[in-house]
């Protein structure tokens, strides 16, 4: 997939993963990589940006396997951003699918 398309949607993907529960960077990166091909280290700049925007907050939690881990938590502002951008993305996908001659499910119109 075109890297510019992915770059534009990865913030939304990270927010959606955090909606499922708090997580630390390495775990988020793994969850994302299982679904979308991303380069190593892609998630950390996104997390820093989202934290600076106030849509995620961080806290340290002790780890049994080493130093404390920095966990990321979706804030109320993050939930609002996620809901707005999710709706925008779904609308955009539907419009693009219409242009491409595809139904929402990805099957060609007959």
Short recap of the structure:
Helix content is 58%, strand content 17%.
**CATH homologous superfamily identity of one domain:** Winged helix-like DNA-binding domain superfamily/Winged helix DNA-binding domain
Helix proportion: 55-70%
Largest sheet composition: 3 strands, antiparallel
- Give the mean pLDDT: 89
Unreliable spans: none
Oligomerization state: single chain
* CATH architecture assignment name of one domain: Orthogonal Bundle
Which overall shape is indicated by the principal axes computed on the Cα atoms?
globular
**Distance linking N and C termini:** 26 Å
Number of strands: 3
Pairing-aware structural class of the strands and helices?
Answer: alpha+beta
Provide the succession of SSEs: HEHHEEH
Overall description:
By secondary structure, this protein is an alpha+beta fold. The protein is built from 4 helices and 3 strands. The protein starts with a helix and ends in a 10-residue tail after the last helix.
Fill in the keyword field for this structure.
110 residues, alpha+beta, Arc Repressor Mutant, subunit A, 4 helices, globular
